[in-house]
């Protein structure tokens, strides 16, 4: 099979499998979100805002884009959390407004799955896997059960660049798990391509980008040591220089992009001390060891079987606890430690690294409370102090397990190929014989053999098959862009503001509402000032902030603050009240 034909089938299979897994997202592309009505709506708003800002002014990606229409245009408020810029091209192919925002998010979800599956396949193939093993790695990486839980975080699901960059860099540096160093095959252009893909991966945020940067640094250090010991004697000096220049140029591009992306985040940290690490958050988000084996309740295969584990986890923080890479993939990876196409030292090294990452993924729930595993890194390595969700290291664990499992399946495939070659060799000695691995076999045998080769990948795919709930997203009850601005919508609160921010994708009015990666002190004070609205004190406080319109949404009001605010009289308060049904508009001017 030629490389082009192989690539065609790999893309077609990844596309078909992803469409089947996310068919509900595709079917309701412009009306629903997956998982819940919290974080997904924030990311839908963010994707739409970035597209809107760059369409209006391509140069805004450097500065203007970072100050959005929310948080009453507080400087750099887009950088209050991870920023997903990698899907920017979607802004040119979908309509604007709320429908377009939802379409961008759901298309991004589909593309993230396709990309992760293809990248896992390519990485395994480059490192020496046979086709069945590579398909298994692709299915394991692209459809791991933990991805169902993280469906609310498109920045965490967007990992294709990690595996693809590693594949290109390994190929360019002529290294594979099967054959080790092959200096005669050094290719500078593939090295440069790997660094460009790595730079693209940074555009999906620092939640994965910080770990990715350390991974690249360790990878280059290992290669440097390896070349100094054994590789340089077998490669031409001219070729080595080209590869070194490609690494230097690519590394500088990567670091330059990281610096530019980091600048607005650094400005936020300087102006918002409350954005620093929050004590106790790491404990809250650290999963127990069995959380690394537990699939969420939406998983079709493990829903009932893992209910006891989930009952304990549900008392913690479920969205970051269900981090299973798949029991099927794990079992094949364990088999890959004993039976593999990878030489023993390499597969044992890969197994040890994968196990160490799994321990790190438990954070403060590791042995000794993480004092000898995650905490030293969290307390001393730059950037790690912002990585409060250690369970997401399962991204890397899944890659390791996928490669170990691919080695096991490749070994079985090696034996089949050897038998194939023996049959063909014997066939040439017999006149009029039919050659080929499947030739001479009856159709039932051919089908059985094909199913046998597809079984490993099929098992990993089916284990990750989900039934994640879809939520229909309501539209704003009033044209917010037509109201005097800045405006404040009530009730306002953490996470609840995500829906209100999403409503502003129609016309982009300036609003005081906002929530993001941390609960900004300015927003806490704003909600406190508005808690008794409408009364003289709250009206004076809001006017002092420059807010000229308050919109109370009846359907979102409940017990607590703002209960009945829409019905209270405004006589003598110096404001006007307009009842439009679900939305009651108060003009403070």
Question: In words, what does this structure look like?
Answer:
With 589 residues, this protein is mainly alpha-helical. It has a domain at 474-587. It has helices spanning 3-21, 23-27, 39-56, 97-126, 131-142, 146-149, 154-157, 160-172, 188-202, 206-231, 237-271, 281-285, 307-313, 327-336, 344-361, 374-380, 394-428, 443-463, 496-503, 521-529, 536-544; strands spanning 32-34, 175-176, 180-181, 470-472, 487-490, 549-553, 576-579, 583-587. The strands form three sheets. A four-stranded mixed sheet has the order 5-6-8-7, with no helix packed on it. Strands 1-4 form a two-stranded antiparallel ribbon. A hairpin with a 3-residue loop joins β7 (576-579) and β8 (583-587). The termini are far apart.
How does the SSE layout of this entry go?
Layout: H1 3-21, H2 23-27, E1 32-34, H3 39-56, H4 97-126, H5 131-142, H6 146-149, H7 154-157, H8 160-172, E2 175-176, E3 180-181, H9 188-202, H10 206-231, H11 237-271, H12 281-285, H13 307-313, H14 327-336, H15 344-361, H16 374-380, H17 394-428, H18 443-463, E4 470-472, E5 487-490, H19 496-503, H20 521-529, H21 536-544, E6 549-553, E7 576-579, E8 583-587
Parallel strand pairs: 5-6
Antiparallel strand pairs: 1-4, 2-3, 6-8, 7-8
Helix pairs in contact: 1-4, 3-4, 3-19, 4-5, 4-8, 5-17, 5-18, 8-9, 9-11, 14-17, 14-18, 15-17
């Amino acid at each position: 099979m030629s490389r082009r034909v192989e690539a065609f089938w790999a893309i077609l299979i990844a596309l078909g499998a992803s469409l089947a897994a996310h068919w509900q997202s595709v079917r309701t592309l412009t009306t629903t979100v997956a998982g819940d009505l919290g974080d997904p709506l924030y990311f839908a708003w963010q994707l739409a805002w970035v597209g809107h800002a760059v369409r209006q002014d391509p140069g805004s990606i450097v500065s203007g884009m970072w100050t959005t229409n929310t948080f009453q245009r507080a400087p750099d408020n887009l950088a209050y959390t991870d920023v997903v810029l990698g899907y920017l091209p979607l802004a040119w192919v979908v309509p604007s407004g709320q429908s377009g925002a939802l379409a961008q998010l759901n298309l991004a979800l589909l593309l993230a799955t396709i990309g992760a599956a293809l990248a896992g396949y390519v990485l395994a193939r480059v490192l020496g896997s046979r086709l069945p093993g590579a398909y298994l790695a692709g299915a394991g990486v692209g459809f791991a059960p933990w991805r169902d839980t993280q469906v609310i975080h498109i920045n965490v699901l967007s990992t294709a660049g990690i595996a693809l960059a590693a594949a290109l860099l390994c190929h360019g540096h002529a290294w594979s798990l099967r054959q080790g160093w092959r200096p005669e095959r050094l290719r500078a252009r593939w090295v440069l391509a790997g660094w460009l893909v790595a730079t693209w991966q940074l555009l999906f945020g620092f939640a994965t980008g910080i770990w990715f940067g350390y991974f690249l640094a360790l990878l280059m250090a290992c290669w440097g040591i390896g070349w100094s010991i054994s590789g340089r004697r077998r490669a031409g000096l001219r070729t080595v220089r080209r590869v070194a220049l490609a690494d230097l140029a690519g590394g500088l591009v990567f670091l330059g992009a990281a610096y530019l992306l980091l600048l607005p985040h650094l400005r936020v940290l300087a102006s918002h001390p409350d954005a620093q690490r929050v004590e106790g958050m790491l404990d809250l988000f650290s999963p127990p060891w069995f959380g690394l084996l537990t699939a969420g309740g939406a998983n079709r295969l493990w829903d009932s079987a893992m209910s006891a584990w989930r009952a304990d986890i549900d008392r913690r923080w479920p969205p970051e606890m269900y981090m299973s890479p798949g029991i099927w993939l794990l079992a094949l990876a364990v088999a890959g430690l004993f039976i593999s196409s990878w030489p023993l030292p390499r597969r044992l090294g890969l197994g040890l690294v994968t196990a160490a990452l799994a321990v790190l993924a438990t954070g403060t729930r590791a042995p000794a409370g993480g004092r000898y595993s995650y905490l030293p890194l969290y307390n001393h390595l730059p950037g790690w102090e912002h990585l409060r969700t250690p369970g997401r290291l399962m991204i890397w664990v899944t890659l390791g397990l996928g490669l170990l499992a691919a080695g096991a399946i490749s070994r079985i495939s090696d034996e089949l190929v050897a038998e194939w070659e023996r049959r063909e060799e014997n066939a040439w000695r017999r006149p009029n014989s039919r050659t080929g691995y499947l030739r001479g076999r009856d159709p039932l045998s051919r089908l059985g053999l094909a199913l046998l080769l597809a079984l490993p990948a099929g098992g990993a795919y089916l284990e990750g098959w989900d039934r994640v709930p879809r939520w229909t997203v309501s539209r704003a009850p009033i044209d917010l862009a037509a109201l005097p601005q800045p405006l404040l919508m009530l009730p306002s609160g953490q996470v609840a503001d995500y829906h209100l921010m999403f409503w502003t994708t129609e016309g982009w009015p300036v609003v005081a509402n906002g929530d993001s990666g941390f609960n900004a002190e300015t927003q806490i004070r704003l909600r406190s000032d508005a808690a008794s609205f409408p009364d003289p004190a709250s009206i004076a406080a809001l006017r002092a902030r420059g807010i000229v319109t308050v919109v109370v949404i009846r359907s979102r009001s409940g017990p607590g603050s703002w209960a009945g605010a829409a019905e209270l009289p405004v006589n003598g308060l110096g404001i006007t009240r307009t009842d439009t049904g679900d939305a009651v508009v108060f003009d403070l001017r």
